[in-house]
Amino acid sequence: MADEAKYRVGMVAKMTGLSTHTLRMWEKRYVAVLPKRTEAGGRLYTDADVARLRLLHELVESGHSIGGIAKLSDADLRHMAASFPAPPSQPVVRHLPELRSRVMKAIEQLRIQDAEQMLSRAALSTEPSEFLQMVVAPVLVEIGERWKRGELRIAHEHAGSTVMRGLLFSLMRLYPANDSRRRAVIATPAKEDHELGALMVSMLAAMHGWSVLYLGPDLPAEEIAYAVTDTNADLLMLSITNLKPKESQREIAAIEAAIPERVRVLVGGRAASALAESRVQILQDLAVVETELSR
Ligand code: B12
Fold it and tell me: Looking at ligand 1, which residue's alpha carbon is closest to its atom 13?
């Protein structure tokens, strides 16, 4: 039978090039397809579902937002795809080391749109924490190393950060805030201008169902504490990249003193490992952060 539900989610991921995570999110958030279920609750897709997902994938890769097209009929999607013949200027790169070097090359040559396009398309077909750990973070570290050696200029570093910042914001918006969810406030302390680690954990928190208030970088302790208290947050996450341990301890102590005791505080970032654990928990590995966020 042509429309028999027979493909499991892993197989559909291989057939469509979408990650299993993206398949679940497109279903849960946007009702893009509604697969049948096995008795044990596993998803089962038909050939028609697979064809629809391929069309959606193609259209998203040509620049449409999934939210805008997820509910269109198959006929409308086919019509849109047919009127979108222009091939993207950058091929889809699925091999992560190759993607990293292509993105680095694009940043080196200040081809920012190319870097954005490669990254946002690869983000669709890679599990989010893998994408952050295998692509976003290593590219940033390499930019930092090459800047230090004088091989890249400040302009390259700023261009690279801008690309990553935009990308992380748009990925975070895939998971719209919902007031009934557990609340997290995320920021960097005063004088800490590096915000990309905070954005990475914001994206992961949103993905795990947290309602995220992202405050950005360089916040005085009293402003962080105010936001935590005012929103009745359950979790505060701070990212520390360049602050000296003394400065960090001082900021963290001031925040801790001003927020309710029940609020969990997680701190990460390359300069966080030098801190002594108090009531705060120091975490670096994004896979571990995910486990904590899904508890
Ligand atoms: C981009 C960048 C900038 C941008 C930031 C833009 C932005 N919007 O964020 C700008 C231009 C502002 C900047 C400024 C500076 N920078 Co800078 N910067 C970087 C760069 C290239 C990337 C930073 C980044 O985002 N890293 C994100 C990742 C990869 O982070 P991570 O901290 O290791 O975090 C990981 C985990 O800990 C976890 N995580 C992160 N946060 C959190 C939070 C929680 C709660 C949890 C659970 C987990 C978690 O996620 C990450 C995944 O791997 C780094 C290079 C590098 N190695 O990081 C240099 C780097 C950090 N900068 C550096 C320097 C020297 C500076 C300046 C002093 C330069 C100057 N002379 O002005 C200023 C200081 C600004 C300040 N007051 O804070 C040095 C720091 C050296 C040191 N202290 O040891 C670095 C290492 C470059 C180098 N190789 O020398 N920088």
Answer: 194
